[in-house]
Amino acid sequence: MLSWARERSRWPRAAFSEFFDLAGVRWHVQRSAPASDVFLVHGSGASTHSWTAVLDELPETVTWMAADLPGHGFSTASRGTVSLAGPIAIGDALVELLRRTETKPRVIVGHSAGAAIALHVASRVGARSVLALNPSLVDALDTRVERAVAELVGPLVRSDAAGRVAAMLSRRTRLPDRLLDQTGSDVPEWSRRCYRTLFGDADHVSAVLRLFSTWSVPDTRAALAAFDGHLTTIVGREDEWIRTSDVRSALASVGRHEVHVETGGHLLHEERPTTVRAALMGALAASGA
């Protein structure tokens, strides 16, 4: 298990960190102020550290809050809680966290899997704008055979043993760096160090594997259908994991939305924080700031 006491001195923006106990999760939250304007939802495998470059130069007048997903980073989840569920259940848990912290964001930002979660949260809390970065909105398994195999190996992937083995490999090999290289993004060294720390922890890796194995495309479609605000999507041209054509296809039936294609990979917000920050400020302005 990751130790906040051990990692705090070198974790990005640690001065903004707080912890809340709710619904079987001890949540690690970073926020600039209560009742924040912006809520940020990281993708699977990441943590609040992923938003550091975007947040560093936001105007002080913009208040924000980010949270580690259940089981990810420093948000520790009890067995059988939402760490085992898909985007709707995780979104519901985040809604309760927002209510507990009396936060009613006007804009929600989500990356990858966090984008689908962000859409569900937005529809529940009345946020009028969502900024989706390289959103995971379609099934990564393209054939029936692959889906059948996934059903067979799912119980193994969700086991604690899988997390322990993967974490051990991460500590002993360059696995985290190879995964980062495969995103098509040029990730700075300070962030790579954070990912190495995260993927060396069995609990974090188990949460990542469980989220992948329980991901539900019907859930993402339901989240898209329920959201009636404005959706701005940014995808990286060099993203090796999310295809722009798949994103456009998933959004074909959505009402108010716009898609921007930018230079960068899957971790676009870490590579090009200025671009994402500008889009965020635009979303805030459109939401009535």
Separation, N- and C-terminal Cα atoms = 40 Å
CATH-defined superfamily: Alpha/Beta hydrolase fold, catalytic domain
Secondary-structure-derived class: alpha/beta
The number of distinct helices, counting runs of at least 4 residues, comes to 13
- Describe the sheet with the most strands: 9 strands, mixed
Q: What are the secondary-structure elements, in order, as H or E?
A: HEEEHEEHEHEHHHHHHEHEHH
**Quaternary organisation:** single chain
CATH class: Alpha Beta
Overall radius of gyration: 17 Å
- Kindly report the average pLDDT value: 85
The structural domain count equals: 1
Total beta-strand segments: 9
Q: Tell me the helix content.
A: 40-55%
**Per the principal axes of the C-alpha atoms, what is the gross shape?**
globular
CATH topology title: Rossmann fold
Question: What fraction of the residues are assigned to beta strands by DSSP?
Answer: 15-25%
Low-pLDDT residue spans:
140-157
Query: What's the CATH architecture name?
Result: 3-Layer(aba) Sandwich
